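Quick one: structure for this chain?
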Amino acid sequence: MDKRREALAAAEGLAMSPANLARLGKIFGPELAAWAIAQGELRKRAQAKFTRAAEMIFVREALEQATAEPVADFHAVQFPAGEWVHDLTAGIGADTIALAARGPVRAYELDPERADCARWNLAVYEREAEVRTEDCFSAAPWGPFVFVDPARRQSGVRSTTGSEFAPDPSKIVDLAREVQLGLIKLSPMQRDEELARYGPRTEFVSHRRECKEALVSFGPQAVPGTFAVRVENGDRLARSERHFEPTSTPGEFLYDVDAAAVRAHAWGSLMQGDLRPIGDQAGYLTGDLTESVWWRRYHVAEFLKPDRKLVQTTLRQLGAFIEEVKQRGAGVDADALRKSFRAEGDRALSLVVIQQAKSLRYLLVERTD
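Got it. Here's what it folds into:
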């Protein structure tokens, strides 16, 4: 352990290069030198997820799937304080760390390297948990409280089919006979019908306005329903069956609805006043000035046909440039479209592509919140 810490200290700030590998390799050996330099890169990536990333250690693929710290904290508070929770998929320890803040945890991880990361990272956060390097099924049916984050990638390829996850969520639910409340972190891209197979409650979790996961609850304590939830403040929106016909022309403002609210079929709950959907794809509302934490608001500057020359002329008249291109299922290459327009000033606008029937329309909008 001390040798690894020495290597990490020596590799701090070093890029992965033949010269650096050779120099550190003479001191620590080639394998440890490569590992230590790679950790520096992974620690930089992990800063978006962990407040103590600079002290942690990672496995690349596990880091990509690891739960961000605020989302892991949201998972943890669903369980009663002081009660044992079985974390069936410890990985590098993201959720294990959060769970350990509220009570005792027994965690399982088949991969020895990832289990080692989990133990190290628990120590970084000054948390304690029992991390077992073994198959979680060896301890079935576990206890009253269970958390599971199945691996959804095989050889780097992401899957959205539950039977291909490891472990299979169906098998977990079948064996969890003693469970009062179980949580399964799943992909929001999975179909509603498949998510409902695992439990009666699904929460589509928003973090930084991105829909990060579908959190399914099962067991007697799982209250049925489908919701969108924002981890920043705990706000929830329930699924709504309200339907509104879309408008073909924008109002004064455009509202870009949080992806979790759209995925949860909850954005009908946001309809108020003169707000109406615009376009064929769910996610954009338009109307007069109103407030909500569930959207970003833009002032509508222009509503245009998808004509490049017309857009360029309009940008010149407005003294503007296109900062970003936004779309929801319109099938355009957003980055290429943005780069196709010249800057005509310093006013930052967004180009929103709206699909209406078989045609496209462009909205030039300006962020107001």
